[in-house]
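user: can you give me the structure for this one chain? tokens are fine.
assistant: on it. calling the predictor now.
[tool input]
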Amino acid sequence: VNRRRFLQRSGSVGIAAAATSIAGTSVLGFISACGSGPQDQAAALVDSAARSRLDVAALEAACRRMLFDEYLPFWEKGGYDEQNGGFMCYLNDDGSVQDDRKDIWYQGRGIWVYSYLYNQLDRNQKWLDMATRSRDFMVSHMYRAGQSGEGGPYWLDTVSRAGDPVAGLDASRDGNIYGALFAAVGLIQLAAATGSDEDLAMARATIEAAVARYEDPAYAGVLVPETDARGLRAQGHSFMLVWILPQLLVLDPDPALETLLREHLDHLEQRYWHPEFGISNETLFHDYSRIPALADFMVPGHSIETQWMAAEAAAFLGEPERADAFRNRMRRLIEMSWDYVYGGIGDTGYRVSGDQPGPVLDLKTMWAQTEVLVGSLRAYAETGAWWAADWYNRSFDYVTETMPTGTGVWRQAVDRFGVHKDRPGIPVSRKGNFHQPRCLMMNLLDLERIRMQG
């Protein structure tokens, strides 16, 4: 395994191709794109071939502008805490702080973003300093080493701007493990820049403690209304580990970590994937068996994200055929979830059966659209497949037409018609500090690869 090359490319058997094909075009996409007559079919193939041409220079310029001229300057207006370090994500449109709470998700994510930016795109000391100061805040105020018999280290979910635990929010270990995993991946990416053994050890201990909690049959971090059972399995937990562990293995090539990576890659491939329906389920029972009421359900945004992360992990492990199988699954899920009238994927839910089968189209989140951009362009950079360029072009046009706000930070969601829509339970002031920059950074790296490949 070329681990060094993986770190340079990553942000992160053999099964048959998930969608059968006619002349290289998946049946699902072919039927969706054209009518029943031969002339309609031929025209659809010509249109797809035309869309599959990437204007690499223009795309590079656009992604660089959106990242360096728009997104990064916005965060320096107030979202990044110059005084204490760390990130505040509840901001007004002018960048001023609306709520100064600091959540562990956004500390870990922010540290990862600025570390990755420094490691892969721009060796500007400012980015490394921002990541380091945020790491110091997060570790000083949110890390708890734990006592003997308590299951290892954990992280407070929310603190104030100054670092005091915030009453009324979950400051315990009773919630899910996402926050701990984001803290860990931020430390890993920062350690790639600094060489800190302390941060690597802290990240590894955090992952091990999170996995131990997740393996507890009483784990209450995943709850769904369809069952009262505890210890449920979440697709997102496995894809987080599949994304994080290769980054750690580059720096700490321990066989035990590779075993854990393979375990969760197997779960994504064999347990969450429903072979009868050709979808990836979101939630399973503790033994990884299906929840009957959710067997025909998926969350397309997460499921697409899962497939590109799994493809990256398979490639990292030296299994190219397996990586291609995950890419084919991703293609199928994009085609199933796409709104062929107004564009974008309907990403919050998909039912195979019932009164309203198909994707939910009345809410299209920004984060999920970025997963299509990341996954499709990475697939094109790796394989040269025309379908991947086609979906990247479609998604890039959709995102750049619907998500910009004029502030530098993309909106959280739109309705089916591309009009701003609030996400239920999430204040409009919450600005994303992860999916947008990760997408733009990974796209820039892949566009550079494509350009260099000629």
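assistant: here you go. The first strand starts at residue 21 and ends at 22. The two ends are 25 Å apart (CA to CA).
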